[in-house]
Structure formats: C-alpha cells, structure tokens
C-alpha cells in the first residue's frame, strides 16, 4: 500500500509528490493523459518566479523528471472511483483497485467546448484546444482563436508567429486576459480582433473545418468567415465526477477546499485548479501542491 496516492499529474500533483516524497512517504501519482497537465499546452510561461522564459512543455518535463528522481511512482491510468475503506482508501485505476493511506486530488480541469453541432467530431479536423500541438498544421494559413482569457491571448500570440493571420473572436468588447498579453497581441500586425462576436456554426467540407458562421451580438448581423484552423480557448471545467460524493464539490464541480488543502473528508486533500479558488495560475497550483503534501503528511503522522 502506498502512503499517498495523488490523482492527477499536473503541476499541483507533481509538486505534492515532490514534497511528500522528500518527507519520506511512498507516493504514487496516477495520470490519465500525459504528465505535466494543462501547462504543456502553454507556448510560453513568463510569469513563473525565477524562470524568465520557459515553454510549458519544458517546464512539465523538468517537473516530471524531478519527481521521478525522488522515487515517486508515476502511473498512467484513469481513476474511475475512490472509496473510503475504514482507515484507508480504495482507488479504482483502469479497473483495478489499489490502496492508499491518504489521497491528494489534483485532477485539474478539462477544456470546455462551445457545444455547437458536430463539435466533437471536428476535434483534430481543423478544430483544436491546443495551439502548441496543432498550430503547425495551420502554418502560413488563416486561423481563428475563440475566447478572451489568458489562454486565448497566449494562443493568438503563438499562432501569429506561424500563421498568415489570426482572428481573435471574443463575445464581449474587453478582455479578461492579463493587460500585458492584450498589449502584446495588439502589437502583432497579423492578429485581427472581432469583438462582440459569437460563433454560431462550424462550416465544414469533407468532415473538416473550413470556417465559421458568426454573429455580432450588438447588431445582430450574421456573417461567415473562412478559416483553416479554429482554436477554442473558452475556459475549463473540473473533472471530479468520478468522486460520487467521496469529497464534497460545489455546484460547478470544484472541490470545496482552501489553502489548507482540507476537503470535507478526512484523509482526502485537494490541490490546484480542481478546487474552489479565485486565481488559477501555475504558481498557485504548485503552492497548493506543497500545502496538500504537508497536510497529508501531518495527517499520516498524527
Ligand atoms: P478563462 O479565463 O475562463 O476565459 C475563458 C474565456 O472564454 C473568457 O473570455 C470567456 O468570455 C470566454 N467564453 C467562455 N464561454 C464562452 C462561450 N460559450 N462562447 C464564447 N466565449 C466564451 O479561461 P482561460 O483563458 O483558459 O484561463 C483559465 C485560467 O488559467 C485563468 O485563471 C487564467 O488566468 C489561467 N491562465 C493563466 C495563464 C498565464 O500565463 N498567466 C495562461 C493561461 C491560463 P468572458 O470574458 O465574456 O467570460
């Protein structure tokens, strides 16, 4: 039995693993996709203290290697159930049950879509959640980014370096993204801004995206625009459905917790974007990971 099972191998989960392992606990991290979490999709991280510039992918690789070097067990597998069994926890991973004395939930968030018809089938056929991964397929062509947060602005800036043009489509007339990102995007000659505009339909040909039907929400005008690639950056949602009440979540599905990392269930701790919080940043995720590991170690040593 492992001392601490960590569900989710993003910055919060891997930081928790580093802290707990250095505190002498046996630690296993379960990750259903790639280790590193959502940060791997960030083209450039420029706000991590002590590191002026690093790609999300490189940062994730460093963090993963650091955890592995400390003896953390990294397991690829999807956790589908978590159950308290007297003083320990039973975790179902890819259909098999493993045990742990404490659990840290660092399940992160998943991309939201627009919910337009055909969306699921178009992912990978001109529609993408990841500018870093799929931007090169659009090299020299015309791309659209939908959203007005940090991700949308970062994606647009990244794509402006490889695409002929980037159209940033936002449903309001001001961005919630960091001012510095907005200024940088505005200074790129090939980023065009479409404000007060929503996407109403994906235009397709032979199963691939060819453009968008758009509507100006102020004038009501509906129009179409051709695009070779469309990148969705309209926010994220938690992935805690598998808990089925093992730890309490708010109406949106985020785990009730704060910087103490405590959840409503003794022995289960929460860290990172998956918990209720105001600021979801790389720095706050790693901070949460440290707090959760310390809280879990105290719980085990009690
Ligand atoms: P976000 O901040 O939630 O922004 C989502 C954007 O999508 C908003 O502008 C929102 O519009 C728009 N949107 C939502 N639903 C929509 C819909 N149905 N149709 C059209 N537009 C829609 O998401 P995010 O940009 O992915 O960022 C998530 C978190 O990660 C944030 O806390 C962010 O600060 C952080 N992050 C930080 C960095 C960094 O470098 N510092 C980089 C990436 C992400 P409204 O503005 O009108 O609501």
Notes on the structure:
The two termini are 18 Å apart. The chain has 2 domains: 2-110 and 236-301, FAD/NAD(P)-binding domain (3-Layer(bba) Sandwich), CATH 3.50.50.60; 113-232, FAD/NAD(P)-binding domain (3-Layer(bba) Sandwich). The relative contact order is 0.18. It has helices at 11-22, 56-69, 119-122, 131-134, 150-160, 179-186, 282-301, and strands at 2-7, 27-31, 73-76, 79-85, 88-93, 96-105, 109-111, 127-128, 142-146, 165-169, 191-194, 197-205, 208-216, 222-226, 229-232, 236-238, 268-270. The strands form 4 sheets. Strands 1, 2, 3, 4, 5, 6 and 17 form a 7-stranded mixed sheet that branches. A 5-stranded parallel sheet has the order 8-15-9-10-11, covered by helices on one side. The chain has a 3-stranded antiparallel sheet with strand order 12-13-14, with no helix packed on it. Helix 1 (11-22) runs parallel beside helix 2. The longest helix has 20 residues, at 282-301. The protein is elongated. Strand 9, helix 5 and strand 10 form a beta-alpha-beta unit. Helix content is 24%, strand content 30%. The model has no long low-confidence stretch (mean pLDDT 96). The protein is α/β, with parallel strands linked by helices and 302 residues long. Residues 42, 47, 114, 146-152, 154, 171-172, 176, 178, 198, 233-236, 280-281 line the site of NADP nicotinamide-adenine-dinucleotide phosphate (NAP).
